[in-house]
Amino acid sequence: MTVTRLILVDDHPLLLRGVADLVSLEPDFEVVATANSGHEALAALERMAPDLLVLDINMPDLTGLDVLRAIHRADLQVRVIFLTATITPRQISEALAFGAWGLLLKESAPDLLVDCLRTVARGEHWHPQELLSRADREPSRPDPLQLAQLTVRERQIVNLVCKGLSNKAIAQQVGTAQGTVKIHLNNIFRKLGLSNRTSLAALAFTLGERDEWMPAGDASLLGHGR
Q1: Whole-prediction pTM value?
Q2: Rounded to whole angstroms, how far apart are CA atoms 11 and 9?
Q3: Computed from CA positions of residues 132, 138, 141, 146, in that sequence, does the dihedral angle turn out positive or negative?
Q4: Euclidean distance between CA atoms 133 and 28, whole angstroms
Q5: Alpha helix positions (H), 75-143
């Protein structure tokens, strides 16, 4: 049996203990560390190199999104799940843009948390539709002529960005330099009238099926998430 190693992070010690106790009952999970802040989370992440990181969004020092951005910049191989009491549409969009694998509200039943952990552990996303429907979408839908301006490589990069890959990971995936990826992204933002990765990820969820990004015959060019 494969055991998934995880770190739990929450600034409420009582809740943190309860979640740790719940997860520890499952033989396929091992809680290798707990933390009460974003700074502690990053230190534990460097020290323990877990498979999963489960953390709150709203914390007093570094927020969960701050931690996610740091992970994204460093291209760390850990799957992040947000377990949070509240989440705004903008926070959902940012979480998706920077590669969060799971989103779950604390009001959910305990069994759902275990299901979420197992789903993400086997390489699938846990993005409930009721949360995705709250995400900011900017713009609501681009003009088809805007999409037609994208080159095949730009469409490929759009898909990889929306899977949460960093510029470094995208460069490795498509066999080019990070600087070239940045140039492609600037061109994509200009052509679609967007300003950042968050808007791009939100737009991807507005479009729904990835076929809207890729013309027929280009599916083989799509990269795969990590």
Answers
A1: 0.67
A2: 7
A3: negative
A4: 32
A5: 89-97, 110-121, 129-132
Among 168, 166, 165, 147, CA closest to 218: 147
pLDDT value at residue 116? 97
- Whether residue 19 contacts residue 45, with contact meaning beta carbons closer than 8 Å, is answered with no
Instruction: Pull the structure tokens for residue 55.
Output: 């953390």
Look at the block and give the residue holding tokens 């799509």.
222
Sign of CA dihedral 152, 185, 66, 96: negative
Q: In sequence order, which residues have a C-beta less than 8 Å from that of residue 212 and are 6 or more positions away?
A: 147
- CA dihedral sign, ordered 89, 94, 100, 106: negative
Cβ atoms of 50 and 7 within 8 Å: the answer is yes
Residue 181: predicted pLDDT: 93
Q: Is 101 helix (H, G, I), strand (E, B) or coil?
A: coil
How far is residue 46's CA from residue 61's CA, in Å, rounded to a whole number? 18
Q: For residue 120, how many other CB atoms are within 10 A of its CB?
A: 23
Question: Which has the closest alpha carbon to 113: 29, 34, 2, 40?
Answer: 29
Mean per-residue pLDDT of the chain: 84
